[in-house]
Amino acid sequence: MATPAALQAEERLGALVSVLDVVRTKGAASRGHLSDATGLGRSVVAQRVAELAERGLLAEDAFGPSTGGRAPRLLRFRAEAGHLLVAALGATSADVAVTDLAGGVLAHREERIDVAAGPDAVLGRVDELFRACLAVATPAGSLWGIGIGVPGPVEFESGRPVSPPIMPGWDGYAVRDRFAAYGAPLWVDNDVNVLALGEVRAGVARGHEAVVYVKIGTGIGAGILAGGALHRGARGSAGDIGHIQAIDQGGVVCRCGNVGCLEALAGGAALARDGEAAARAGTSPFLARVLAERGAVEARDVGVAASHGDPASVELIAEAGRQVGRTLAGIVNFFNPSLIVVGGGVAAAGDVLLAAIRETVYRRSLPLATRELVIQRSSLEHGGVIGTAAMVADQLFAPRWLARWLDAGTPAGLAL
Amino acid sequence: MATPAALQAEERLGALVSVLDVVRTKGAASRGHLSDATGLGRSVVAQRVAELAERGLLAEDAFGPSTGGRAPRLLRFRAEAGHLLVAALGATSADVAVTDLAGGVLAHREERIDVAAGPDAVLGRVDELFRACLAVATPAGSLWGIGIGVPGPVEFESGRPVSPPIMPGWDGYAVRDRFAAYGAPLWVDNDVNVLALGEVRAGVARGHEAVVYVKIGTGIGAGILAGGALHRGARGSAGDIGHIQAIDQGGVVCRCGNVGCLEALAGGAALARDGEAAARAGTSPFLARVLAERGAVEARDVGVAASHGDPASVELIAEAGRQVGRTLAGIVNFFNPSLIVVGGGVAAAGDVLLAAIRETVYRRSLPLATRELVIQRSSLEHGGVIGTAAMVADQLFAPRWLARWLDAGTPAGLAL
């Protein structure tokens, strides 16, 4: 039973979270601005700001612009109060960083991995990279949280991957236990979810409510924001667009066992396969040279070749874009986003892909759904780690978790 | 600038909305249950309950089950405090009702219309049906709100249809002005959105967070719930799945101008067309009799024929189900709902359609996305009016609007 004291604690917590959220996600603000943005009275804002400052989460910053009277002091989130360890894992890459509490990167290591090597090998290496980053970063504050993005579906509550198709050995793996020695709370999320969150917090998706982030890498997946919040789906598998049937009949057998899947037609593995075939068939002199030099063609080679004007590669990339565009056209009709962000290794290739996607979506979707639709490339270089840090911070500063650690001063040792 | 008094008003309003929401949408509750469900202290709940009772929105009801001590009094929402006028319009039907504030139907009129006759003709008839319902309902309380569901995209804030493809003359029409004489606030929403809301509030979708409601009538459309709330999309056109390209090449030209659209293959108009062709070709004796008797075949005739075992009709309905299922399989991968509700005139035909949809979705979607996915038929006879009433009540009792009418006692005269 909630007592009046418990009620007051609840109201206090709600006000703390509201004030923190504005400063954390929107930037420095005056007390007056905080009052307007949260709907809380000035006296309550002043009390909560004082409490957050006392706990080292807010600091008085520079003076803001005056609106006539005395220039108001701006309050900023003390991102340096603690630090986070984050790892954004793709099928073949690990992007590992120490960040501050706002996702500012303090130290960073990126390398090729094979996620199919299994959780012991991959997370062992992530652990080493964490320690390597910590050795050079000398962050202020203690470790407040750990975040891991993985290329597969995740049961968010438990932090366990669930039947991830390209991650053998990871199904149900207790990622939290693996990093228990750090004594910090840990959350796991899907790799494309954190990329989407990164773009909303620090990239091109700022201010958008309905967003689809499409990652075209080895595989193809999407992250979805509805009402500005991540939509993870009933089983954490939302956004798995790589296995939507893109063509009616025939087509290549996909790793999922079906035929005609988008990913088997337009993913990085498909591009590498078709690029190598073009090299062997002699239709692409550029890729033939790559094949002769390195013995294999990768998706990124096809992208580089296309950006150099190699006709066969331009056509491969454009056809991949048209296939992705046809699937996205259906998603646009269904979901009516205001923004589609295209990211991933294949997307980095150049403008041919984006142009083909745009052309197909605008032609195949209903006019109303595309009237204000923007389709653009991901803007963040380290979107994975920025998004993973945002995912962890969002959890740490949500009422549910903040209530559990605020009086202790830091979330270190918080058991999930 | 928010003053301490304004802050108190804000907190009071939040508590009122929380208490009302539980009783309104979850049913009768004791004060203790309200405290648990809202996280508010018992003293605050008691104060807010008293205030809501004084304003006639809550009433003491029967005694609930005792948990040892004195049996607690249950509080119920006084749905009879006012009434609503609601109209659920489809392409060819109008379902009009007077309901209480909880969507309980007090009087009801249903008839065939042609929404393409334009807003003056259609809404003029709706107005007559409103008056006919009011003449027999003798509802307690005054008129608190009006809701209209229309078969097209709507700009929800202004209540105006936006480029609705099957509603010529409705684009930008000021529906609110048309009913201004009633002196009650009016909201307009998409027909499938209100059907989805009806199922969440009173039907098979209760307790689900991620839901897709598919209406297969003359056209095909979907209503989407994400996080338990309606997802209307950036331009109010979310759920327009009828024009997703269902087949690669060829196919019939759709009314939207594209070829291969789902609706042109599997909608009611397509079924009527194919059923009539079967009648003329002599492959369906059942439909040939219908054609001879009435000079035309409608989609519902094909459904009736299928449920009587007419082989050609069974195959037409099953093929429509497979086409819908293929599109839904992609949506399941993208959105990962826990429930798909199938409704609309064609869905009423029988089990053949549902079986074909299920079989295709379970075969074509990823196993994780379908592991706990339920696909079932709509459960509500008057889902459109129930959902439209829920849509209106949700607006009336949201903080934004409640603040504007609560002190006046009723929302009558509330200008939007």
Compact description:
2 copies of one chain form a homodimer. Chain A has 15 helices and 15 strands.
Structure description:
Two copies of one chain form a homodimer. Chain A is of the alpha/beta class. Chain A is built from 15 helices and 15 strands. In chain A, the strands form four sheets. The first copy, chain A, has a five-stranded mixed β-sheet with strand order 6-5-4-7-10, with helices on both faces. In chain A, strands 13-12-11-14-15 form a five-stranded mixed β-sheet, with helices on both faces. Chain A has a three-stranded antiparallel β-sheet with strand order 1-3-2. In chain A, a hairpin with a 4-residue loop joins β5 and β6. In chain A, α2 crosses α3 and α6 packs across α14. The radius of gyration of chain A is 23 Å and the shape is globular. The two termini of chain A are 24 Å apart. The mean pLDDT of chain A is 90. At the A-B interface, α1, α2, α3, β12 and α11 of A face α1, α2, α3, β12 and α11 of B.
Write the layout of secondary structure elements.
The structure is a homodimer of 416-residue chains.
Chain A: H1 4-26, E1 29-30, H2 31-38, H3 42-54, E2 58-63, E3 73-77, E4 82-89, E5 93-100, E6 105-112, H4 119-137, E7 142-150, E8 154-155, E9 160-161, H5 175-178, E10 186-190, H6 191-202, E11 211-216, E12 220-226, E13 229-230, H7 262-266, H8 268-281, H9 285-294, H10 299-307, H11 311-335, E14 339-343, H12 351-364, H13 367-370, E15 374-377, H14 383-396, H15 399-405
Parallel strand pairs in A: 4-7, 7-10, 11-14, 14-15
Antiparallel strand pairs in A: 1-3, 2-3, 4-5, 5-6, 8-9, 11-12, 12-13
Helix pairs in contact in A: 1-2, 1-3, 2-3, 6-14, 8-9, 8-10, 8-11, 10-11, 11-12
